């Protein structure tokens, strides 16, 4: 038999539009601000009521907000989990309340994947691979030692775990590459600067490359390298991920060497998924956004049109 006609989840009226509870992870980076704005603007476009809460990168606050959304009987819970684990209990409460959960940007690791309905975001492992592939291609010499400092994003977060894994997967086959120091940051400019000052104190000009899990930490590292008296982008190469305007500008001035894009404009795809679900349509479990890379040559052209 043909697929049965999708049956709307409930009647939608002017007085009772779709209501989403959005427990945002924080406001830690330029990328996060663009992500938040994309979700808020897309909800407005679709006349969807969005309750936005900022959890300041604290898991217990995200859980608290999710419980508030369950109590106020929203139609959907949307969040970007600050870390991968520790969500089973509260997501079971959402499931028992019959409220679907959509993961926007980051994934969770739970015992039962029916606890979340869909994931919209990036392939973080591939982002890490792209960063390393460029470096290997750029250096193109297996005889010189390449000493790398890695600035990691929030511990146990989906992007930090994936970006580390992808980068290591590629440099593993390069015997002259070494991560001389891998440091725990939190995706903020301040953490990038602080960690880079420590790395410079320990290794100084032996550092050839900095691999930062996001632009804000790379921009902090640039400040530290200049404060130390070296030239970022020349004495030490820098690679970062996100591709915010600030990073593209640093590419344009030669202080960054390569940037892998991570697309924060997930709002429209999220609202489409919400409307499809309410119309009774099946949602794909994962919707991976398309994203590219930028070099010093391509940064300037991109800056002319980039909205974040
Ligand atoms: C990636 C996102 C990361 C960004 C950071 O999808 O979760 O969190 O790379 C942000 O800038 O803090």
TrEMBL record:
Keywords: Signal. Residues 20-282 form the Periplasmic binding protein domain. GO terms for cellular component: cell envelope. Its main location: other. It is found in: Cell envelope. One of its GO terms (molecular function) is carbohydrate binding. Belongs to the bacterial solute-binding protein 2 family. This is LacI family transcriptional regulator. The lineage of its organism: Bacteria, Bacillati, Bacillota, Bacilli, Bacillales.
């Amino acid at each position: 038999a043909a697929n049965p006609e999708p049956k709307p989840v409930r009647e939608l009226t002017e007085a009772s539009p779709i209501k989403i509870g959005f427990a945002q992870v924080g406001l830690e980076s330029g990328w996060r601000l663009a992500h938040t704005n994309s979700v808020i603007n897309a909800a407005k476009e679709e006349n969807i009521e969005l309750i936005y809460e900022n959890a300041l990168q604290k898991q217990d606050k995200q859980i608290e907000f999710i419980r508030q959304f369950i109590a106020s009987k929203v139609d959907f819970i949307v969040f970007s989990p600050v870390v991968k684990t520790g969500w089973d209990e509260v997501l079971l409460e959402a499931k028992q309340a019959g409220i679907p959960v959509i993961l926007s940007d980051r994934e969770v690791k739970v015992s039962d994947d029916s606890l979340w309905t869909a994931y919209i975001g990036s392939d973080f492992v591939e982002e890490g691979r792209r960063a390393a592939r460029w470096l290997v291609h750029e250096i193109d010499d297996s005889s010189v030692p390449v000493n790398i400092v890695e600035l990691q994003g929030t511990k146990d977060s989906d992007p930090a775990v994936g970006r580390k894994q992808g980068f290591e997967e590629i440099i593993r086959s390069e015997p002259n590459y070494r991560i001389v120091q891998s440091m725990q940051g939190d995706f903020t400019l301040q953490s990038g600067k602080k960690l880079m000052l420590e790395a410079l104190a320990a290794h100084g000009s032996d550092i050839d490359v900095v691999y930062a899990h996001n632009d804000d930490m790379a921009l902090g590292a640039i400040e530290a390298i200049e404060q130390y008296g070296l030239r970022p982008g020349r004495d030490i190469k820098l690679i970062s991920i996100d591709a915010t305007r600030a990073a593209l500008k640093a590419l344009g001035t030669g202080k960054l060497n390569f940037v892998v894009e991570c697309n924060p404009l997930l709002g429209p795809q999220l609202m489409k998924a919400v409307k499809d679900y309410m119309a009774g349509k099946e949602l794909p479990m994962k919707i991976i956004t398309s994203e590219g890379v930028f070099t010093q040559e391509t940064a300037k052209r991109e800056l002319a049109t980039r909205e974040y």
